[in-house]
């Protein structure tokens, strides 16, 4: 770089730093500014020789992350300083955590240390475990040190997502999948709704770019019409609100691209058929004591003018979400017969909804007890610190609890408890206390005895019946849904299994002695192999519970004495299995040779995954399984996010090469208004398509509506799309979708 270019870049860096100070959500004191200035100088020095893939100076990244932390999340000067320093220890040999502590104090050092540990995890190499899931689990362990570690990590991820264009496509897809899988739900749970929305939209941009661009362009085209509609809606209620002397603002908020896409998939509708593409937000000024009263007053005014949908009322003022979110949501029939979601919030509620964590603590009273976020972190910690739990299983379970909708249930004393939707009495018992959960023998809901897998509903009063004689059994894992409950049950079952295995080992030693066999490593390995088990623990446990009895051990002893015969048998069976494997491989190769893998576009053996049933033309990827070779999934497969996030190192780029001679099955679902000759119209269109073969058809009709399923065989996705388009044009047909 020339001196002039260096000077220009330094001026841009200084400008970015000054903007950071201007946009801070909290009021910065002189000491705060000194702290941030010092952090900025250390960051500039630590990253002086670094550049990003885009070519710009690396220092722009920590400044941008600090700006997100300051402006969008609203954290304090300590957090802004930590954000500026978040990569210094990792990237610069000149700075260690001890230096950061000496320069900035213990708190900043703890946060930077947490962020450094998270970053260093991704550089470890272990192909036997899911590194991504292990990273996520270890990252979440930092929640207990300081929740700001996770918040700054989310800000870091947001900026990385915003500047990912210069990365390779496979890296973009991996990072976007991981973001959608864990970071967006985590942002949601901490109450960072704006950031969650941005993360989801950016992830969709890289995982399904054509879908993202299509919806983005359609939103842009309809913006003028949307603004006009919001103005019409607002005009109707403004006079009534003004008469009550309320200070308020009315805003229109478009739904995110990701949420529109989710609605299109969930309801099987097109973009034009999504009725609530935006929400109207009424934000009012209020003293804390009047907030609830004024919210219902505004509700009354809105429903005086527009008829509400009674089943779409959400009162999160009386019972705030566990994220701290408070608002009144109603859906009303607006002008031109369109449903409109109206969100009613005070300025305080709006600030909490916009800023999440920071605003929540700004308004928290010192007299308040432990809040929902702290309570959630403490409960999560118990589940996280179980060293024996599988990382992938844990992350899957944890993710479910992040995005799950909430229900509110009562204890016998009338205390209100929040649980994920779908929770059972067993989840409730472990939510109250681990000891209560462990001793649960039954439950009463609203005074009636129910099963332990009974699904709780909002408003239920739950009474747990306990007994010291009860202990968890394997069935409980089918009854519990929350991470906390399942983790505690698994730990108890493992402990129980270990105790039984200890007894089983002694029983086995005695029984083998009678058969003149010594219990040692060799005989244990032989027994594990003979009974087709995985570990010695499984063997001892089965002896302990009596699943492996005297007769079975005698069979083992006799097979051991006739080793030669068993050796010959194993040789024969091995040859048979090899032949069978060769036949299967040949069959796979001849039937499915239309996919190529990797940059070299190699033809490899593979299987089509049954969970999403891909056909030529679908966007796909290969997944290297442990025992079944390569399995091919669609990119929008329900399992795709989990696989790409947890096992990125097993993902293979795949594309269709030549599928002209292959045929693939697909199932079409049709719904609409029943009329005479409809089935004939459908079958006629299918039979007129030369390259489509109908395998089966079934229809049901009730109350003038029909639904049908058709199984067809097609050569590729293009032919299937043409068929779907033709079927949609039949008179009376409402929806045509491919399963």
UniProtKB/TrEMBL annotation:
Domain of life (superkingdom): Bacteria
All copies of domain TGS, residue ranges: 405-466
Coiled-coil residue windows: 490-525
InterPro entries: ACT-like_dom_sf (IPR045865), ACT_dom (IPR002912), Beta-grasp_dom_sf (IPR012675), HD/PDEase_dom (IPR003607), NT_sf (IPR043519), RelA/Spo_fam (IPR004811), RelA/SpoT_AH_RIS (IPR045600), RelA_SpoT (IPR007685)
One Pfam assignment: TGS
Annotated keywords: Coiled coil
PANTHER family, sorted: GTP PYROPHOSPHOKINASE (PTHR21262:SF31), GUANOSINE-3',5'-BIS DIPHOSPHATE 3'-PYROPHOSPHOHYDROLASE (PTHR21262)
Role of this protein: In eubacteria ppGpp (guanosine 3'-diphosphate 5'-diphosphate) is a mediator of the stringent response that coordinates a variety of cellular activities in response to changes in nutritional abundance.
UniProt record similarity statement: Belongs to the relA/spoT family.
Protein name: RelA/SpoT family protein
Lineage: Bacteria, Pseudomonadati, Bacteroidota, Flavobacteriia, Flavobacteriales
């Amino acid at each position: 770089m020339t001196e002039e270019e260096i000077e220009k870049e330094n001026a841009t860096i200084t400008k970015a730093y000054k903007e950071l100070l201007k946009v801070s959500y909290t009021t910065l004191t002189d000491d705060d500014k000194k702290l941030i200035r010092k952090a900025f100088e250390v960051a500039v020095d630590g990253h002086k020789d670094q550049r990003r893939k885009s070519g710009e100076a690396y220092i722009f990244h920590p400044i941008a992350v600090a700006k997100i932390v300051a402006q969008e999340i609203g954290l304090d000067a300590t957090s802004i300083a930590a954000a500026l320093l978040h990569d210094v220890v990792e990237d610069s040999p000149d700075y260690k955590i001890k230096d950061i502590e000496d320069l900035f104090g213990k708190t900043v050092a703890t946060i930077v240390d947490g962020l450094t540990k998270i970053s260093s995890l991704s550089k470890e190499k272990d192909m036997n475990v899911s590194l991504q899931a292990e990273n996520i689990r270890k990252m979440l362990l930092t929640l207990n040190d300081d929740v700001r570690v996770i918040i700054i990590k989310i800000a870091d991820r947001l900026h990385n997502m915003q500047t990912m264009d210069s990365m390779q496509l496979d890296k973009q897809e991996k990072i976007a999948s991981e973001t959608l899988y864990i970071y967006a739900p985590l942002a949601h749970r901490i109450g960072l709704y704006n950031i969650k929305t941005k993360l989801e939209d950016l992830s969709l941009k890289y995982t399904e770019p054509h879908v993202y661009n299509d919806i983005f362009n359609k939103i842009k085209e309809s913006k003028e019409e949307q603004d006009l509609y919001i103005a019409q809606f607002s005009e109707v209620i403004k006079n009534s609100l003004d008469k009550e002397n309320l200070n308020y603002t009315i805003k229109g908020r478009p739904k995110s691209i990701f949420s529109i896409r989710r609605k299109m998939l969930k309801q099987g509708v097109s973009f034009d058929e999504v009725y609530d593409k935006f929400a109207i937000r009424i934000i009012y000024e209020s003293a804390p004591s009047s907030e609830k009263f004024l919210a219902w007053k505004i509700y009354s005014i809105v429903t005086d003018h527009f008829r509400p949908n009674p089943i779409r009322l959400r009162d999160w003022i009386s019972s705030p979400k566990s994220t701290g979110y408070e608002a009144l949501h109603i859906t009303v029939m607006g002008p031109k017969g369109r449903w409109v979601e109206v969100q009613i919030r005070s300025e305080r509620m709006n600030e909490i909804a916009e800023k999440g964590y920071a605003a929540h603590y700004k308004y928290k009273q010192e007299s308040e007890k432990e809040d929902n976020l702290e309570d959630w972190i403490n409960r999560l910690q118990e589940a996280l610190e179980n060293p024996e739990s599988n990382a992938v299983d844990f992350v899957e379970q944890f993710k479910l609890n992040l995005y799950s909708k909430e229900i509110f249930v009562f204890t016998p004393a009338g205390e209100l408890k929040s649980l994920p939707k779908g929770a059972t009495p067993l989840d409730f018992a472990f939510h109250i206390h681990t000891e209560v959960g462990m001793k649960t023998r039954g439950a009463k809901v609203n005074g009636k005895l129910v099963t332990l897998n009974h699904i709780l509903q909002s408003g239920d009063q739950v009474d747990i019946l306990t007994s010291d004689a009860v202990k968890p059994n394997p069935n409980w894992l089918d009854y519990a849904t929350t991470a906390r409950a399942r983790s505690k049950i698994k730990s108890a079952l493992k402990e129980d299994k270990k105790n039984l295995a200890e007894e089983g080992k002694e029983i086995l030693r005695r029984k083998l002695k009678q058969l003149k066999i010594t219990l040692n490593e060799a005989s244990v390995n032989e027994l594990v192999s003979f009974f087709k088990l995985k570990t010695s623990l499984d063997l001892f446990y089965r002896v302990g519970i009596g699943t492996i009895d005297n007769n079975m051990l005698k069979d083992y002893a006799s097979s051991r004495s006739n080793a030669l015969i068993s050796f010959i048998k194993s040789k024969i069976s091995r040859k048979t299995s090899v032949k069978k494997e060769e036949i299967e491989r040949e069959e796979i190769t001849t039937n499915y040779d239309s996919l190529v893998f990797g940059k070299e576009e190699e033809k490899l053996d593979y299987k089509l995954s049954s969970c999403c049933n891909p056909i030529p033309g679908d966007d796909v990827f290969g997944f290297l399984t442990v025992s079944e070779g390569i399995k091919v999934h669609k990119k929008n497969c329900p399992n795709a996010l989990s696989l790409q996030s947890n096992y990125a190192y097993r993902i293979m780029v795949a594309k269709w090469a030549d599928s002209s001679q292959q045929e693939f099955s697909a199932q079409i679902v049709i719904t609409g208004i029943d009329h005479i000759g409809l089935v004939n119209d459908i079958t006629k269109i299918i039979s007129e398509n030369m390259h489509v073969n109908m395998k089966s058809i079934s229809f049901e009709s009730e109350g003038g509506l029909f639904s049908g399923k058709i199984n067809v065989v097609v050569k590729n996705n293009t032919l299937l799309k043409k068929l779907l388009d033709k079927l949609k044009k039949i008179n009376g047909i409402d929806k045509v979708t491919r399963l």
